[in-house]
Every structure is written in C-alpha cells, then in structure tokens.
Amino acid sequence: MLRLFAGTYGSPRKDSAKTMEPIIKKTALIKLIALFLFSVACALAQSQPPSPSAASDAATPRRAHLDADTASALVVQKAPIKYPEAARNDGIQGTVVLKIVTDYSGDVKEVSVVSGDPALAQAAADAVKQWKYKSYQADGSPAEIETQVSINFHLKTNPPPAAPPLGTFGNDVYSNDYFGILYPLSRDWVRHTDVMRGKMASEGNAQGTYVLLAAVHIPQDAEPSRADSEFTVFAVNRSGAPLPDECKHYMDAVADDLHSRKEGQQKGGVRQFTLAGHDFYRGDFEFRHGIDHRTFVCASIKDYRLQWNIAGWSKDAVETAVATLQSITPLPPAAPPQPKLASTADPEASKRVKVASGVSTGCSSRKSHPSTRRTPSMLTSRAPCD
Fold this sequence. Notes:
Blueprint: H1 2-47, H2 52-59, E1 63-65, H3 68-72, E2 75-77, H4 85-89, E3 94-102, E4 108-115, H5 118-128, E5 132-133, E6 136-138, E7 141-153, E8 168-170, E9 173-176, E10 181-184, E11 189-191, H6 193-203, E12 209-217, E13 229-237, H7 246-261, E14 264-266, E15 271-275, E16 278-287, E17 293-301, E18 304-312, H8 315-323, E19 329-330
Parallel strand pairs: 1-7
Antiparallel strand pairs: 2-5, 3-4, 3-7, 6-7, 8-9, 9-10, 10-19, 11-12, 12-13, 13-18, 14-16, 15-16, 16-17, 17-18
C-alpha cells in the first residue's frame, strides 16, 4: 500500500513541477521584455524634442509693455532728430508715432511706424534707433521694453514782415521814398488803390504782399466813359537776398501755372529794359477767360519784388498802361539840412531901455493882450521895480 501510495502520490508532483517550469520561464521572459520596452520608452522620451508650444515659451524673452510716459523716464541717451530738408521746403510738419522694442541692455532693436507723414517718418525712426534706455527688470528678471514714442516736427514760422512804406499820391504823381521812385500819371488814370487793398484784405491774400498803387484808365474822349485798361502795383516781400534773374523765374512760373491749368498762354519771350536805375522784366500773356490781354512787369528793389499786373480789352490799351512806366524817375535825394547861422547881434542890446533925460529909475511894461481891455502904456512907479 505504501509503495502503491508512494508511487501514486509521487508521480503527480513531478508532473506539476514539469508543468510549472515553462510558466515560470514565460513570466521571466515577459518581465524582461517589459523592462526592455520601458527602457526604450524612457530613452525615446529623453531624446524626443519638446513640443512647439514649450519651445516657443522657452525661446520667447520676457517683455514688459510700458506706457509712453513711463518709458520716457527710462531714456538715458537721445540722438538729435534732423528735420528732412524736402519736408521743410514743402512746409510739412506733424507728429510721428513709433513702436519700439529694446533688448535686455536697453538698446533699441526694433522700430516700426504706427502713424505719421512718410516724409517725416524715416527721419524719426533713424534717430530713435540710436536711443538708449535703462536696463529693465520685471519680477526680478531682465526684460525687454515695448512702448511707443511720439516725435513732433514743427516748423518755426517767422513773424510777418513789416509793411513797406506804401507811398503817397499828390499832384498826379506817386512817390515812394523807400523804393526811391517818382511815378507820374495823367488825368486819364483814376486811382482805386484803397478799393484794391480792401479787396485783398477780404480775400485773405498771402501775407507779405502789399498794394502800392492801383488805377484804371478812362479816356477823356470816350463816350460813354468806359475804362479800357487797369493796373495794380504790388510789393511782394522776399526773405534773403534777391536771386539772380528772380523776375525772369517769376515770369516762367506764371507761364507754367497758366499752361497747367489751361487758362492761358505766354505770347513771346520775356523782355528786359532798364528804368530809373532798375532792371525791369516784361511778359505778355493771353487769357482764355475774362480780360484776355494781360501783361506782367517785374523789378527787384531792396527787399521786395515790385509787380505790375496790367489788363486791357485790347493790345493798344495794354500798351497805354505799359507806357506809364516810361515816366518813372528816381526820387531826388533829400536836401541836407541847412546849418543855423550864429547871430552877431549884441545879446545885451535887447535888454537896454531908452529913457528920457533926467529919469534915473523906472520899469518897462509889456503890451496888454486885447482881451485884458487895458491900454498899452509905460508904467512908472515911485517904488523901485522888483
């Protein structure tokens, strides 16, 4: 029985051991495989680059957005701003707004234009690029600065020049001491200078232009009385010394303006002549509207350009107006003041009084004014005169 039991009992145990051995080997193999896969996963995780968002966050520097007033207090160095010459000549002015970004050290590394005239923007950006700011920290760490800068471009306007002496008119002659001319006019010319000055003031014409003389020509034998031509003499102030051929350039500018606006054209070239020691330039024009025959005459005298604007209903009428310039003469120099002659009379002579013989005391009396109703007389006194 024991043998049978032993044999019977021992045989299943051996079979169980044999059965478990492959299972243990498989489990160990699975653990090895799992450990290998875990190691590979860890290696891949370490070698894999960070996500784009994480990389972006790590690469983006810390930046502080400051208002213009706060940022302006951090400026330690500014570069001078040069006004663009072209913008100055064209009278362009205004404000340019820039967006800037500094680096950690305070140097300006980015500049972009937010608003402003393009003629001024580049000069503003070039100057601001050279500015220096204090290093800035945000939450204890270095930070860039982003802010806006406003650059103002302003042209200094000179005060309007004082009006020149406008001259006087008397005895059919216009005279002007400042320009040194005498300009006679016949009785056929009726002056309306004040009317033209009032018209210019109401139209708000440019400062520095003044009406010296204006007249219309009404022939005395015309029936009915009708003006056939007119002229106005302007004094136009200029800054600085006169330019060579200034009046010729003025005529060319008038011709170009009329041609561009299709309002008229120049007839012939610019003619030059000399009167009263000054060079005059004449240009003839034909207008398409209104009075078609017009002539402009120009002369540079002192700080002004004198302009005759002449208009007539016919060429002959225009020539009548132009002919008045031939009567212009230089104003004669003022006579020097005459020196006062010293008196040779005895200064004591006026104090002497002639008295009758035997009179040793007395006093003189002045004639009484008629309003005092007193009779002029010589007054004597028993007492000495005080």
